[in-house]
Amino acid sequence: MYSNEDVASVYGFLNNTPEGSLRKMLVDKEFTEVHFRLMMKMAKNSSEADFIEAFQNESFPKFSMSANELKVKEKVWDLGKRKLASMGLLNLSQSAA
Prior knowledge:
About 65% of the residues lie in helices and about 0% in strands. By secondary structure, the chain is mostly helical. The protein has one domain.
C-alpha cells in the first residue's frame, strides 16, 4: 500500500506535467496508450481526494469509458502503480513493507 501523501504527489505530477511528456515516460508495451488515457481521465476529472480513494482501492467513479478503456480497467491501477514505482514516484509505505 502507498501512503496518501505519495498518491497525492502522483496526482499533482499527472495534473501538472504536460501530457506529451507523461506519454513518453509512461507508455510502453505493457502500460499502453489506452491504460495511459484511462489513468489521465481519472487524474484530470477527479478531485485529489477522489483520485487517492480510487488509487488506493483500485476502483473507478462512474464516468464514461470507451470500449477499449473498459477492456483494460481491471489492470490499469496495478500496471500504473508498477510503472510509477519503477520511475521512483511511489514507494511502499513502511507499514505495508
